[in-house]
Amino acid sequence: MSIRGLKKKQPKTFKVRVITVDAEMEFSCEMKWKGKDLFDLVCRALGLRETWFFGLQYTIKGMCTWLKMDKKVLDQEIPKEDPISFHFLAKFYPEKVEEELLQEITQHLFFLQVKKQILDEEIYCSPEATVLLASYAVQAKYGDYDPNFHEPGFLAHDELLPKRVLRQYQLTAEMWEEKITAWYAEHRGIARDEAEMNYLKIAQDLEMYGVNYFPIAQNKNHTDLLLGVDAKGIHIYSINNRFSPNKSFEWSSIRNISCSEKELTIKPLDKKAEVFKFFSSQLKVNKLIFQLCIGNHDLFMRRRKVDSIEIQQMKAQAREEKARKKMENQRLAREKQLREEAERAKEELERRLFQLEDEARQANEALLRSQEAAELLAEKAQIAEEEAKLLAQNAAEAEQERQRLEITALKSKEEKRLMEQKMREAELIAVKLVKESDRRAKEAEHLKQDLHEAREAERKAKQKLLDITRLNYPHMAKYPQYSPGDSRDANFDKGSIKLDLKDIDLKRLSFEIERERLDYLEKSRKFEDRLKELKSEIHALKLEEKQAGLYS
Q: Which sequence ranges are marked TM in the entry (predicted)?
């Protein structure tokens, strides 16, 4: 067979993009495939066995529709695009999530879808419940809370609360994070699947959980009611209240549901009860409501029958898996606890070791300080000893100096007394000298006066002698050789000698007076010098006495 022949026999395909809540997948489908073929392919790719809860949804002309399993994919009214996009979502909801959701992948897909519906406000939830649900979502994503790792701001990029709740309360993102973290810290030890299951167990009690709403009317002219279909039955709501139904029909009380064009008829099990008829705006809406009613009713009846072998096997596997996971979680918890205890013990040992090292370091430092202090004390003791010796020596020297000063003081006192006595004597001598000087000065004046009088008398005598000579010997000069005159000359010479002698006595007296005056001045000068020396010695003694007083 040629390669060209093989190529001709290969079936034609078309591309499909399947979008789950957290992933996207692309498949190549054969042209003849039905909806169930594509659905089974997606379930196998996901590893999903609880297929009865899910379906493939697409949007056409603004209306969400589910892909029919028994018809070819391309024969249905699907979007004309390449690849064709489908959303893999939960179509039917369980009554009790903990009993019916067996596989972990089923539980995870339900958790993601319900969480998205709550955040998109398709399911109403009170603010308190949203914070608790957010804490379980954080536990499922991040595991156990660790304050060292989960620092403030670690939830900044996570969408955890509906915008309605954020608008309702004027709280900052940090405040919301603090509230969520307070609950999150209490979920320590809960595994991811347990956290997701706790999330779904809280969510299944919400009034709008698992309900598909459709606008209907009790007559052909008005659309003033809402019809809701869920796992428990059919409910009739007013337009403005989706929480409390005005009328409910449980699946166990419904005998038959029929659909004809835009009319939907619900026949109760009680034949006497009134038959309810409702009208929808479009035939497609009626068909969609009818499909959801059939699917939910089938699941309702299945829950109340004995489980099939496949379900029993799945439940057994689920129990085994849960037991295994429980044991594994317990083992991991024990290991984690042991590891934490070991880490705490290690930290304690490290802390103790650090404390001991610190104590040893402090002890070494204290030892070094004590050694330094001992050396310093030894040096101080040596210095103190030397100072003591020096002080003793100084004390001895001071004692000697004191004795010397006492002796000096005594000597000084004696010398001072002697000096004072000398000064008094000097003063007396000075007084005497002054008196003597005055007396001598007076005597000198008298002598000078006497000398002056003597000289004046001598002058007068000489003058008188000359006058007498001229009168008695007028020719004496002319006759110098005359002998009789020699005797007179001799007499005259005798008079002259007498005058000369008298003159010599006066000169000698004057000379003696002058000499005594000079001697007196010399003595006065020496006495003044001696007085100055005495004053200097007295001043020095006074200074020494003062210093001796300071030393003492």
A: none
Residue numbering of the annotated binding site: 68-71, 287
| 369 and 452 both lie in a single domain | yes
Burial of 465 (0-12, 13-18, 19+ CB in 10 A): middle
Domain end marker among 251, 279, 305? 305
Q: Residue 189 belongs to what domain range?
A: 104-204
- What one-letter code names the amino acid at 66? W
Residue 537 lies in a domain: no
35 and 82 assigned to the same domain: yes
Peptide bond into 484 cis (omega under 30): no
Q: Is 90 exceeded by the pLDDT of residue 419?
A: no
Give the span between the Cα atoms of 518 and 524, in whole angstroms. 10
pLDDT at residue number 39: 94
- Burial (Cβ within 10 Å: 0-12, 13-18, ≥19) of residue 114: buried
Indicate whether 493 pLDDT > 60. Answer: no
Q: Which of 21, 112, 66 is nearest to 296 (CA)?
A: 66
For the residues 138-163, what does the mean pLDDT come to? 89
Question: In this structure, are residues 111 and 204 in contact, taking their beta carbons and an 8 Å threshold?
Answer: no
Radius of gyration in angstroms for the set of CA atoms belonging to the chain, rounded to a whole number = 74
pLDDT tens digits, one per residue of 494-520: 444 444 545 566 667 667 767 877 877
